[in-house]
Design a protein that fits this description.
Strand order of the largest sheet: 1-8-3-6
Mean pLDDT: 86
Protein name: Nucleoplasmin-like domain-containing protein
Order of helices and strands: EEEEEEEEH
Helix content: 10-25%
InterPro entries: NPL
Largest sheet: 4 strands, antiparallel
Low-confidence stretches: none
Subcellular location: Nucleus, Nucleolus
Radius of gyration: 20 Å
Family: Belongs to the histone deacetylase HD2 family.
Strand content: over 45%
Number of strands: 8
Pfam families: NPL (PF17800)
Length: 125
């Protein structure tokens, strides 16, 4: 089994942020939101860089779209960035952390393989 805990970061203007999930952990990116700003109405593209590929996640707008929802899971290092000069963008979600007892996973996996074998044997009979 595994547990989940809140995860969140602030990506400041002009400062891309590298995120490296801990060993055997996953980060679920759920939302991005604009921080406070007293000026500016421009669109704010959000980027993620994975395996040297930079991809647009979406575009925020202070007036119309101040936050976006995602359903993205990362197991390896990634980099978050934006080009908004008037403030920070906040990303949040949760991280999945495996329990210390790895043997529990192994026994579940073995039971699954045993069940598959039993079903295959029944179908052959």
């Amino acid at each position: 089994m595994s547990s989940m805990e809140f995860w969140g970061v602030e990506v400041k203007a002009g400062e891309p942020l590298k995120v490296e999930p801990k060993d055997f952990c996953m980060i679920h990116l759920s939302q991005a939101a604009l921080g406070e700003s007293k000026k500016g109405r421009e669109s704010v593209p959000l980027f993620v860089k994975v395996n040297e590929k930079k991809i647009v996640l979406g575009t925020l707008s202070p007036e119309n779209i101040p936050q976006l929802s995602f359903d993205l899971v990362f197991e390896t290092e990634f980099e978050l960035s934006h080009n908004w000069k008037n403030g920070s963008v906040f990303f949040c979600g949760y991280q999945v952390i495996p329990d210390d007892d790895a043997s529990e996973f192994s026994s579940d996996e073995e039971e699954f393989e045993f069940a598959k074998a039993a079903i295959a044997k029944d179908k052959a009979a």
